[in-house]
Amino acid sequence: MSRQGTAPIRLAEAEAPLPQMDADGPAVGIVMGSASDMEAMEKAAKELDSRGIANEIQVMSAHREPDVVAEYAKAAKSRGLRVIIAGAGISAALPGAVAAHTEVPVIGVPLSGRLTAAGGLDAILSIVQMPPGVPVACVGLDNARNAAVLAARILGA
């Protein structure tokens, strides 16, 4: 029997498997556009480690590997990730590209470097100027540690 206005639940639907989540897996994904960003982004991992928050680190380019970025972001929630920290410099497209493909909160870390304009202002603006419906939180320039602190607060840890 179903309530008026709602469709009955079919047995096959009720027995459908839930997406696999790894309870022991990482809660926070840390991604960066280039291996040269590792030194800056490892500060996020160290902060999360000090708080006992499981995390993973991956290098993937929004420009050179867009399919890899999309696949990672789409699978994030089903893999148990609850927050993604994405660091990128120059055009800083990675945080927005990740956010476009997931419902998991994304924290962008603008990174400076020898190719950045105005001391990293280009990366900051790329992250904070996201269109409606594709939110990306943004921390200060090169401040991956603050991204980890924010991730911990989102997790309630």
Write the layout of secondary structure elements.
Blueprint: H1 11-14, E1 28-32, H2 38-50, E2 55-59, H3 66-76, E3 83-89, H4 94-99, E4 106-111, H5 121-128, E5 137-138, H6 144-155
Parallel strand pairs: 1-2, 1-3, 3-4, 4-5
Helical content stands at 25-40%
**Beta-strand share of residues:** 15-25%
Radius of gyration: 18 Å
Distance between the termini: 43 Å
Number of helices: 6
Secondary-structure element order, N to C: HEHEHEHEHEH
Q: Could you characterize what this model shows?
A:
By secondary structure, the chain is α/β, with parallel strands linked by helices. The chain is built from six helices and five strands; from the N terminus they run αβαβαβαβαβα. The chain has helices at 11-14, 38-50, 66-76, 94-99, 121-128, 144-155; strands at residues 28-32, 55-59, 83-89, 106-111, 137-138. Strands 2-1-3-4-5 form a five-stranded parallel sheet, with helices on both faces. Helix 2 (38-50) runs parallel beside helix 6. The longest helix is centred in the first third of the chain and has 13 residues, at 38-50. It is globular. The termini are far apart.
Question: TL;DR of this structure?
Answer:
The protein has 157 residues and is an alpha/beta fold.
What distinguishing features does this structure have?
157 residues; alpha/beta; five-stranded parallel sheet; 6 helices; globular; disordered N terminus
